[in-house]
Every structure is written in C-alpha cells, then in structure tokens.
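User: Sequence in, structure out. Go.
Assistant: Echoing your sequence, followed by the structure tokens.
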Amino acid sequence: MKNRQEVILAGSGGQGLIMAGILLAETGMNEGKNVVQTQSYGIASRGGFSSSEVIISDDEIIFQHVEDPDVIVVLSQEAMQIYDGFDTTIIYDSDLVTPGKGNNRFGAPFTKAAFELGNPASINIIFLGCLLQLKPVVDPAKFAAVVDKKFKSNRNNEKALQKGVELGNMLKEAMAKC
C-alpha cells in the first residue's frame, strides 16, 4: 500500500456516503494513520448531490481535499458526470449509473444487492466491502471491526459487508480482463 490513499465517495443524499467516509476515516485512525474526512451535500437531505472525501496517510496531511484520487465510488448519474473526467478507477452502481468512457470504470449492482438483503440502507456497507476488495485503502478486517462496533454487531451489516466482498471479487475478475 502506498503512503497516502485518497478516496472520493459521491452520489445522492440518503445513500450513506457521509457515514461511509466516516467509517473509512475511523478505520484509518485506528491503524495509527493521519486522516482527513470532508463532506459536501446540498440543502436537500435526500436526493441532492452528496460526497465525502477521505485522505489516509502515514505523513502529515497539509491540504485537506483530495487532489489525486486513488479510487472514486459513484452512486448517481450526476456524480458520474462530475467525476467522469478523472483518470482513475471509478466504481459505480450499475443499477443507477451509465458509465463514462474508459477502461477504468467498473460497475456492480449495489442498490439491487441492498434490496435483496432486505435493507436498502446497507448500500454504503456493500460498496465499501467491494471497494476494500479492489483497493484496500484500510485493512478490511479492521474496517469490519469498526462497522461491528459502530452498529453494535448488527448481523445485517455482516451480510452487507460479505455481499460487498463478493461484488469486489466479481469486479476483480473484470479488471483482470482489461
């Protein structure tokens, strides 16, 4: 893993993007790293554009916004339009987003998976499980422990995390073919 990891999580309000950023940041802190987590959202709590940026570094973080993202997770078409020009790995929700052009765009059905688990609010745990399979910006086991502690050993989150890992493995196969 490189010394500094930068992640952008973007989509619509209500998809758990801010909580997802907080969970990544908390895991990074538990690993003894320097961490910055910022968030941006519109006046509408649901449906408006929302994003979270997370920087995890061994070194001091001077500028607290992502400059060169290692990965971007996109959960809405609006977010894809905003971040499509970035030359980095973009993981998107194939249920909600039509990808832009590029070999570094990988989609998985996060929304469908959350509904199949009977918990639409688990979409953030699912996409983070997938993200950590593809780009382990934090230790996946330590992340699972943070989720477990934050949500009091909620069995639904364990299932959501496992589903994310499965989707991440599926995307790994797609990435290997590129």
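User: And one key feature?
Assistant: The chain has six helices and six strands.
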